[in-house]
Amino acid sequence: MVLELKGNIRVFCRVRPVLPSDLPSTASIEEVEGEEELETMKEEMKANMAFPDKRDHKEIVLYSSSESAMGIERKEVYSFGFDRVFEPTSTQSEVFEEISQLAQSCIDGYNVCIFAYGQTGSGKSFTMEGGNSDSTAGMIPRAVEQVFRVAEEMKSKGWEYKIEGQFLEIYNETIHDLLSTSTSAEPSKKHEIKHDPKTSRTTVTDLTVVPLTSPSQVKLLLARAQKRRSVAATLMNERSSRSHSVFTLRISGVMVGTGSSSSPTEGSEVIAGTGETCEGCLNLVDLAGSERLNVSFGPGVTEKERVKETQSINKSLSALGDVIAALVDVFVAKFVKWELEDAVHFQMVLNLSPLAAHLSESLTSLRFATKVNNTQIGTAKKAAKTNS
Ligand code: ADP
Ligand code: MG
What we know:
Kinesin_motor_dom; microtubule motor activity; binds adenosine-5'-diphosphate; disordered C terminus; microtubule binding; motor protein; 3-stranded antiparallel beta sheet; P-loop_NTPase; single chain
């Protein structure tokens, strides 16, 4: 199956549920009478949001009211449309269902980029990595599983695949290898992004590349990355809000036929190997908090760091077109630029907080995501596919 994507960058919007941790700390167990009162409290904290499109799930509406100096109430209605809007009750498997085709197309030899964008605490990492249980597993483990499933199916058609994973983090313009087994907090190696225009492959130098032989391995990798992150950071949340992480799955296939290494199934025809090769890659990107990308800095950041971060963001602004540049710092920008030039399947997931307190940040994010949604990209073409 060949999936040709032309035109706009696809954008999904996902609103997370209100969590117990969102409740004010004063709402201690004794004060809250029971389940019902808890629900009322959650309800009161919610921003006024509606999902009127019950058929296609493409719309989200936000309502705000403010009082003018004259004491007159002003009501505003903001309506946004995306390729798909996921309500707070939506599950990981529902979200993945809409993305799984992209996992399929990287097996077919395409480059795929999926970005999670949104303010800190809006559910980016939950969407991408997810929790430990099968039902809460995020897009990364699900995509890996899907790729393995498809690769297995393709075996009967004579294709043999090699699947590899890498995981990096970009923090203050420095690439950190999240799968490194080094125990030092500082990166022991300097990693650089290299692009080969001949093969249109983008690689990062000296990065740990882990051969994947089963989908369950990905859980270990995510845990290894988590451990690595905690070695490197004293302020975990601070760091995660200021860094981008990129999980890359590389898939390369060779058409060996069914007569050679893999034995043909009973009664089926033997397919001769053609030596045809096919390479694809799937990038799953968990971006820095959008409040950072919108250049607002929290407390505890020194003036020097502030200046450095602002410069880094400005650099990326000049390096790329308006929209994508605002998304990412200079390193990720390179990724996106090349991937876009090589015509990739590009998908953004905008994560939103459901809280009234975050309404203005949500509006900023929704406006930005609309811009991204209206950005034109070229027709996707397959990466290096050659007959040898
Ligand atoms: P971010 O990476 O955008 O900063 P997280 O993914 O860490 O945000 O989410 C913040 C908190 O909300 C985490 O505790 C996470 O488990 C929880 N969370 C996010 N989205 C959901 C969801 N859809 N369902 C349940 N919990 C969620
Ligand atoms: Mg996160």
